[in-house]
Design brief:
Blueprint: H1 7-15, E1 20-24, H2 28-41, E2 45-49, H3 51-56, H4 60-74, E3 78-85, H5 88-97, E4 101-104, H6 111-128, E5 131-136, H7 156-166, E6 170-173, H8 190-199, E7 204-206, H9 214-221, E8 225-230, H10 232-243, H11 254-276
Parallel strand pairs: 1-2, 1-8, 2-3, 3-4, 4-5, 5-6, 6-7, 7-8
The structure holds zinc ion.
Length: 281
């Protein structure tokens, strides 16, 4: 099966009040782990690439090839998405390599500049038929620090205007989640999400899904979130599978060593997907 965009799968998800999981991947093994979980639940998969993954895989073309392999192996619709590109040139590079979806994160800029940069990406992505995600509002940073400052969160009226002016396919919103693991429990602003969803009808995206309380994630999926990004937790589960191996007296066998990582990563992905689907089933 060929790689697909996020457009249809996310529309479907928002309409039926569930979310598709989007997982960072860095190898065929990690793509396999996500695709296997998705196949077992009969849902599509989104495989994402950020700067670290790009470096690890030696570029976007290899990432596309690995995503295709996983999609074909499981006969599963898979979208390959560029996560958090900060530069237009990165977006173009990914599109040329065959990415079916891209995100330009210009949320650090003022509204007008964010609109201008995002419009440029939407224009370019059209040439490739790719879907586009953008972000408005500020998410807390990499260290798991959380801002409870509601002024930093996505403003509903601005979000609606942003979507109208840019024509993006899905919008990442800031409602109190943070990237990375949390250092203290986050306060997820479901009321704010409801206000945004009331005026923005395209699928909404939740970043910083790792470690976010499950009841809040389920509530978010029921209220407009159609894509949830999981990066840190997936990598951690995958790594634990390796670390749990006893290599003493180890006889060289790829199955006995590396399969555990893939299995534990896949189990984590599946449990997340089930959580995102909790309103559909
Ligand atoms: Zn993010």
């Amino acid at each position: 099966m060929a790689l697909v965009t996020m457009r249809e799968m996310l529309k479907e998800a928002r309409a039926h009040k569930y979310a598709v999981g989007a997982f960072e991947f860095w190898s065929y093994d990690s793509a396999y782990a996500v695709a296997k979980a998705a196949k077992s639940l009969n849902v599509p998969a989104i495989l994402q690439v950020g700067p670290y993954e790009k470096e690890f895989m030696d570029g976007y073309k290899n990432a596309v090839a690995m995503a295709k392999m996983a999609s074909e192996h499981f006969d599963l619709p898979v979208a390959i998405h560029l996560d958090h590109a900060e530069e237009y040139d990165e977006v173009v590079e990914a599109l040329e390599a065959g990415f079916t979806s891209v995100m330009l994160d210009a949320s650090k800029y003022e509204f007008d500049k964010n609109v201008e940069l995002t419009c440029k990406v939407v224009e370019k992505a059209k040439e490739y038929g790719a879907s586009v995600e953008a972000e408005i509002g500020k998410l807390a940073g990499n260290e798991g620090n959380i801002t409870n400052d509601e002024d930093e969160q996505t403003d509903p009226a601005m979000a609606a205007e942003f979507v109208r002016q840019t024509g993006i396919d899905c919008l990442a919103v800031a409602i109190g989640t943070a990237h990375g693991f949390y250092t203290r429990p986050p306060k997820i602003n479901i009321d704010r999400l409801k206000e945004i969803a009331a005026v923005v009808d395209i699928p909404l995206v939740l970043h910083g899904g790792s470690g976010t309380p499950e009841d809040k994630v389920a509530e978010a999926c029921a209220n407009g979130i159609a894509k949830v990004n999981i990066c840190t937790e997936f990598i951690a589960a995958y790594g634990k599978g390796y670390n749990g191996q006893n290599t003493e007296g180890f006889k060289y066998n790829v199955l006995s060593l590396f399969k555990e990582g893939r299995e534990s990563g896949s189990a984590l992905a599946k449990s997340k997907m089930e959580l995102f689907l909790s309103n559909r089933i």
